[in-house]
Structure formats: structure tokens, C-alpha cells
């Protein structure tokens, strides 16, 4: 069974985000602008992406 993955890229600065949104972005492993991270496409990760999709580009 192959596991699905999703790649996310931080495309916008976290300035102006609430503290909870900033913590969610950090929890996804995104520290710097234009950084890309590949994560497993499980419900927890997809929910976190949905909460901060304004700052992300999803591939």
C-alpha cells in the first residue's frame, strides 16, 4: 500500500497571522519563506493545511 504525500510551500510571510496560525505553520515544518516540505496526506495534516491555506501553495 503506497502512502499519499502532499508538498506545501510557504508563499506568504507569517506577519499578520494570529499566534495559533503561526504555530500551525511551524508545526507543518515551514520555517522560511519559499521553503517546501513533503508531508503525508493524512487527515491531521490536511486539516492543518486547510486552516492556513492563505499562506501556502499546495502541490
UniProtKB/TrEMBL annotation:
Domain Large ribosomal subunit protein uL30-like ferredoxin-like fold: 7-55
Listed Pfam families: Ribosomal_L30 (PF00327)
Domain of life: Bacteria
SUPFAM superfamilies xref list: Ribosomal protein L30p/L7e
Molecular function GO labels: structural constituent of ribosome
Cellular component GO terms held in the UniProt record: large ribosomal subunit
One GO term of the biological process aspect: translation
InterPro entries, sorted: Ribo_uL30_ferredoxin-like_sf, Ribosomal_uL30_bac-type, Ribosomal_uL30_ferredoxin-like
Alphabetic keyword roster: Ribonucleoprotein, Ribosomal protein
Family designation: Belongs to the universal ribosomal protein uL30 family.
Subunit structure of this chain's protein: Part of the 50S ribosomal subunit.
Protein name: 50S ribosomal protein L30
Amino acid at each position: 500500500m503506497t502512502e499519499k504525500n502532499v508538498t506545501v510551500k510557504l508563499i506568504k510571510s507569517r506577519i499578520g497571522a494570529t499566534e495559533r496560525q503561526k504555530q500551525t505553520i511551524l508545526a507543518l515544518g515551514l520555517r522560511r519563506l519559499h521553503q517546501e516540505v513533503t508531508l503525508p496526506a493524512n487527515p491531521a495534516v490536511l486539516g492543518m493545511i486547510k486552516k492556513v491555506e492563505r499562506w501556502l501553495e499546495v502541490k
